[in-house]
């Protein structure tokens, strides 16, 4: 009887050891060595924080390793498309101080919408491989890409209406500021009430360039590139040219802009 009990105990112990061994093997397979999951989650959190709170393009480069940062990819900060402005020397030489002052306030309004309409969670996916780990970011952000496309179309149409002899670069800057002024009263139209998006960030064990490319794609998704809301797809995309033309007409009628469209 004692021998039977001893054999049963040994068999149970061996079974437990086998299960533990299999778990350890499985853990090593789905979590590639050389990848620090917690550090990557912290990187994503840090990246979101910097993008929302005015980091420069250089700061984002240093954090992510992305070699070139497109101003259109930045949510906020001095190097974002909406915040870019001429040098002080160019400003003074071309009487642009009024434009720069107005732009500063308009940028604050846009950035406030972006910050207050951003929520996200980061979790590690379970379908990892030996070569990479996937981090799923569930997020809800401002429809910034729709705003930027409208802004660029406004800038383009305002430039087409202007006949001044100024240089193209000066006129492009003025047109951007005037376009921001027109859209300032429409910022709530780009608020995302309830549409969530999924962004997968891939960290590769032995391919830093692929990891950097994944982070670069993540910047675009933060701006709303991955949304499929019907209103955004139809109202903001298909009818953009006609809609923007109506914005300019309405802005003139309501004295938001002057008859010489690039004047303040």
Structural class, from helix and strand content? mainly alpha
Order of helices and strands: HHHHHEEHHEHHH
Low-confidence stretches: 1-33
Helix content percent band: 55-70%
Strand content: 5-15%
Distance between the termini: 100 Å
Mean pLDDT: 84
Biggest sheet descriptor:
3 strands, antiparallel
Q: Which geometry do the CA atoms define? A: elongated
Spatial sequence of strands, sheet with the most strands: 1-2-3
Total E-strand runs: 3
Total count of helical runs of at least 4 residues: 10
Radius of gyration, Cα only, in angstroms?
26 Å
Structure, described:
This protein is mainly alpha-helical and 264 residues long. It is 58% helix and 9% strand. A three-stranded antiparallel sheet has the order 1-2-3. A hairpin with a 7-residue loop joins strand 1 and strand 2. It starts with a helix and ends in an 11-residue tail after the last helix.
Task: Give the gist of this structure.
Helices cover 58% and strands 9% of the residues.
How are the secondary structure elements laid out?
Layout: H1 2-30, H2 37-52, H3 57-64, H4 88-93, H5 97-116, E1 119-124, E2 132-140, H6 144-161, H7 168-184, E3 197-204, H8 208-222, H9 230-238, H10 240-253
Antiparallel strand pairs: 1-2, 2-3
């Amino acid at each position: 009887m004692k021998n039977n009990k001893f054999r049963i105990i040994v068999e149970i112990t061996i079974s437990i050891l086998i299960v533990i061994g299999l778990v350890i093997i499985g853990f090593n397979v789905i979590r590639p060595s050389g990848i620090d999951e917690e550090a990557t989650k912290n990187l994503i959190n840090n990246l979101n924080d910097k993008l929302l709170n005015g980091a420069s393009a250089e700061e984002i480069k240093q954090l992510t390793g992305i070699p070139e940062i497109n101003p259109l990819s930045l949510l906020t900060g001095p190097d974002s498309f909406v915040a870019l402005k001429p040098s002080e020397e160019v400003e003074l030489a071309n009487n642009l101080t009024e434009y720069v002052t107005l732009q500063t306030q308009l940028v604050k309004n846009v950035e406030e919408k972006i910050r207050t309409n951003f929520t996200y969670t980061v979790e590690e996916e379970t379908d990892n491989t030996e070569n990479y780990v996937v981090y799923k970011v569930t997020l809800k952000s401002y429809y910034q890409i729709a705003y930027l496309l409208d802004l660029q179309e406004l800038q383009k149409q305002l430039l087409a209406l202007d006949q001044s002899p100024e240089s193209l670069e000066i006129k492009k800057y003025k047109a951007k500021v005037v376009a921001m002024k027109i859209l300032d009263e429409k910022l709530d139209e780009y608020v995302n009430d309830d549409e969530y998006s999924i962004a997968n960030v891939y960290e590769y064990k032995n391919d830093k360039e692929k990891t950097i490319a994944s982070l670069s794609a993540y910047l675009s998704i933060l701006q709303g590139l991955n949304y499929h809301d019907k209103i955004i797809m139809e109202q903001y995309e298909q009818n953009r040219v006609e809609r923007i033309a109506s914005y300019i007409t309405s802005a003139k009628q309501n004295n938001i802009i002057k008859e010489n469209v690039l004047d303040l």
